[in-house]
Amino acid sequence: MPLTNTRLNPWICLKMKKTLEQYLREKSSRVDAWLNRLLPVSTQYPVSIHKAMRYSLFAGGKRIRPALSIAAFEAFGGRGERIYPAACALEMLHTFSLIHDDLPCMDNDDFRRGKPTSHKVFGEAIAVLAGDALCIHAFGILGRYAALPVVQEIGSALGTAGMIGGQVVDIESEGKKNITEKTLRFIHTRKTEAFITASLRMGAVIAGAKAKDMAIITRYGRAIGLAFQIIDDILDIVSTTEQIGKDAGSDIEKGKATYPALFGLEKSNRKARLLIAQAKKTVQPLGARGSLFKELADFIVDRIN
Q: What is the rounded distance in angstroms from the CA atom of residue 281 to the CA atom of residue 279?
């Protein structure tokens, strides 16, 4: 049944929502089990670094990037649990980026996922090293897929042409009044969109997806990735710290370059929803295989945190 039809019947919509929530819970639980297996135990010497790694990694979160990767893997014929180590690597890399983003030299945030940030609990030095360790551990795991270009895929999404490049321009744009849409789009596509797209592509690559399917999932990822960041920008303004699990209002306080700052809340929300509509249209050629991607797209734009 096309997802758009669910809006005609609240009961069906609720049922579909529960189905997606169940899917995310199931995948999150499997990812957590694999993460627990792949990480050093917290009692392994030196204890402080392993405690810090686990603290941030198991602080919560919906495991969106692993779920997207797993969904792509399954949609394009992947079977079994071959995807899970790679999906765990994605979550380690995402957590590494959050630990570093929260540092006093970056965004200087006190809370993440409803808990004190890593540097507040373990100190700045251990927090930096915990992020580094998660990044290194993740690439060690990705190296297991030696016959596939997954390291290149994720490395490109994280490097100066991806997340790090976006973070640099984000920092350099703070407090400036003349930020253009071109600069803003550069920040968002590199900081958020690139990694989300790479997560989907990695799942598809491991499944052995065809070139035409890779093209579809890439366009889908680019649309939902930008929408995801725009929604994050909106939530920072309209939500409380308790709702989003991190310091609300920090974007305005720091003079961050965001879509609401440039265009206002209404236009930003409209832009995010147009991107979601575009993403759902993109996966239409996948038929039944695209239904989960449509639900995930709606989840991204309608999420609370």
A: 5
Q: Is residue 41 part of a domain?
A: yes
Six-digit token string for 74: 């399954």
Q: With 90 as the cut, is the pLDDT of residue 218 above it? A: yes
In a domain, 1, yes or no: no
Give the tens place of pLDDT for each residue, 63-108. 999 999 999 999 999 999 999 999 999 999 999 999 999 999 988 8
DSSP code at position 143: T
Residue 54 and residue 61: Cα distance in Å, rounded? 13
If one counts the domains in the chain, the total is: 1
Assess contact for 228 and 300: CB atoms under 8 A. Answer: yes
What distance in Å separates the CA atoms of residue 190 and residue 198, rounded to the nearest whole number? 11
In a domain, 3, yes or no: no
Q: Of all residues in the chain, what percent carry a pLDDT higher than 90?
A: 73
Stated as kind and residue range, the H or E segment containing 149 is none
Using CA atoms in the order 88, 93, 95, 101, what is the torsion angle rounded to 10 degrees? -170
